[in-house]
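Our example copied in:
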Amino acid sequence: MISYAALADAVRAGYASASTDTGHVGGRGTFALGHPEKLIDFAWRSEHEMTVTAKAVIAAFYGSAPSRSYWNGCSTGGRQGLKEAQKFPEDYDGIIAGAPANRTALALWIAHAVLKDPASYIPPAKYPAIHQAAIAACDAADGLKDGLIDDPRTCAFDPAVLLCKGVEGPSCLTAAQVAAAKTIYSPAVNPRTRQQLFSSLVPGTELGWDVQAQGPEPMANLYDQYRYVVFKDPKWDWKTFDFDKDVARGDLPENLVMNATDPDMAPFFRRGGKLLMYHGWSDPNVPTPNTIKYFESVVERLGGAAEAATHVRLFLAPGMGHCGGGEGPNAFDKVGPLERWVEHGSAPDAIVASHSTNGTVDRTRPLCPYPQIAKYKGTGSIDEAANFVCAAR
């Protein structure tokens, strides 16, 4: 859909701005059934055509082409930004790509764990108890007890600590629910070969589990991907999904035309393009490890961290949800740092983010270029960014 709020923000900032509905109306995947050309429109063609047309309109109205062009998107917009850099390196000078939503069978992995068997269902009322247990287990791993998990991968949280000792209550889990929670935290694996298929969610995401685990069906976007694109059957039953053969079927190139996982961005970077990526660690929609994996593949393709840092940087936000929100600092300027990087060669070494309650800022914290993290200097308020420094883990 067209993001009118984002259009207005960009215009207020002095930009000419464009947005696209990607060639269809509505948030469900029915448009793709029997229409592969519409899937291509959604995947990449509409964004490129929007860009070319917008530049032509600007040139006609102002009498000259835009001097710089920037992409700013998150989730599907983040994926689209990566696709622009990969397929059309001359479209943009700088790209902001947040939480890129590449398609996997994650929603089906979680649905099979939580929704397929009624005994495994975790009522949303229990999410806060699981979240508090995860925070209690993982918070201090970075040396600072601040209610945030800096890197959930370093914490081996076991939801079995919440196993009910007697009668089931809102603050404990049955054995079946413990097993379901462990699956949510575990990377998907092929049941036959035990090969890892894709990342799942991490500790700290629990307050948003309703997106994927509330039911009665899997998350709509990814469920539609398999109904209308992979199996091409509106009546397809998600409970029949086979994590051995059906993941391979879903990963066929014609089914993942929208994914933006190609690490080769050499043409974009050669012409001076800059890529600023970001992702919240508490994102319950798109697994943060997926973005890290992609970023690391780009770094490897460029020949290592030193060379990559001049072209691409990834900022991870502890406690931030999907594209914003959450318990951690989650509001930050993205366009300003990208402008300075593209136009003045000043790469962002830190981006200050803030958290607000009822409109009042109550915590600031630097977001650091991965793999660095924000470390407390040892003195001053832990709610002030000035008292932290970006450093190696």
In short: The first strand starts at residue 70 and ends at 74. The two ends are 40 Å apart (CA to CA).
